[in-house]
Amino acid sequence: MNGVDRPDPAGEHLVLVGMMGSGKSTIGRIVAERMERPLIDSDEVIEAATGRTVREIFATDGEEAFRALEAEALREALATAEPAVIAAAGGVVLRPDNRRLLTESNARVVWLMADPALLIERVRNGMHRPLLDHDPEGTLQRMWDERQPLYQEVADAIVSVDGRSIGEVVEAVLR
Ligand code: S3P
Description:
This protein has helices spanning 24-35, 42-50, 54-61, 63-79, 96-104, 116-123, 136-154, 166-174, and strands at 14-17, 39-41, 85-87, 108-113, 157-160. The protein is of the alpha/beta class. The protein has a single domain (9-174), classed as Rossmann fold (3-Layer(aba) Sandwich), CATH 3.40.50. It has a five-stranded parallel β-sheet, with helices on both faces. The two termini are 17 Å apart. The protein binds shikimate-3-phosphate.
């Protein structure tokens, strides 16, 4: 946790981070509606900017090229003037520069935390998740082990999604 106590969230971006399948896009869409803010979904930004799908980018240019686009999408989203809800793709915490950007910006960062067992049920057949094409269970578990401390590092708040309905998670995020 970056531990900064900021009592007034008005005017600051709200960033949702977390593993694939934790519900960032779904929760982000509803939270954005409730807050009357635009939603910026980093995967969608990348696909719109490149005219290619996440899967195509991974296949043709490789993961590093995708991570560079992801970093750029995060930088641009955080730099927008209008306060937004930003659904950041799961791997955004991998680069130290991205983590620094998240902790040093005024954005409120909420980690949607989910148990790998829940995630694996949700991410089956995810078209934009080529990293899970082979051994999805094992890969997801390894990602969870690697990324948990990274999400923790950037989070101002942690919302557990296990055993909660979408509505309950939305309320928790808004709180
Ligand atoms: C990834 C998460 C995906 C997508 C890509 C890589 C990751 O986004 O960016 O498949 O490394 O965690 P979501 O978190 O929106 O599924």
